[in-house]
Amino acid sequence: MSSILSTIIIFIFILGFTTAYESPSYTVIHSESDFEIRSYEPSVWMTAPSKKNSFRKATNDGFHRLFQFIEGANLNNSRVSMTVPVLTIPLDSSAYVVYFYLPDKFQASPPLPLPELNLKPESWPAACVAVRQFSGFARDKNTVEEAEKLATSLSRSGYSTAASSNFAYSIAQYNSPLKFFGRLNEVWVYVEGCESTKVAAY
């Protein structure tokens, strides 16, 4: 079975019948018609670097290894509950990192992945994030287009890209490939300005 096909089957199995999964905690501090600003709390993610040459291929490659990890391919033999979203961050045209948010149970002490999976945990500090939602399937072309739309919106707002960010944007996916309608994706960009009054916690 090809890695792409097996990854699709994994996504269908895990996210096909979504009820409620853990996700990183945030507070909405500003909202406009086409984007919102969220203040995220510190969190720990498991990361999967990929040298695939496209967003789609890199996401499939990274999540395939992350799925093995959450199914018990770790030195603790621990099963890890599925969470959302799955993040893919493009570093350049042939380097990506796929992120899996660790459930609360493992935030303080993540299971150690098997070395051959080439995964590692990464701690994120509290972050101010601009978020634009979009529907449909996240692909190489539309993810770039949606990131450009968010950049345009931010240029007209009082929020500027965070100088400390090591990447331009990330793509958050919430659904299985089996879900054809009502899909939810997001573009995330680190920005400055979360000292504003907080209005809604999630």
UniProtKB/TrEMBL annotation:
InterPro entries in alphabetical order: Reg_factor_effector_dom_sf, SOUL_heme-bd
Signal peptide (residue range): 1-20
Name of one Pfam family that matches: SOUL
Keywords: Signal
Keyword Electron transport: no
UniProt record similarity statement: Belongs to the HEBP family.
Protein name: SOUL heme-binding protein
Organism: Tagetes erecta
Taxonomy of the source species: Eukaryota, Viridiplantae, Streptophyta, Embryophyta, Tracheophyta
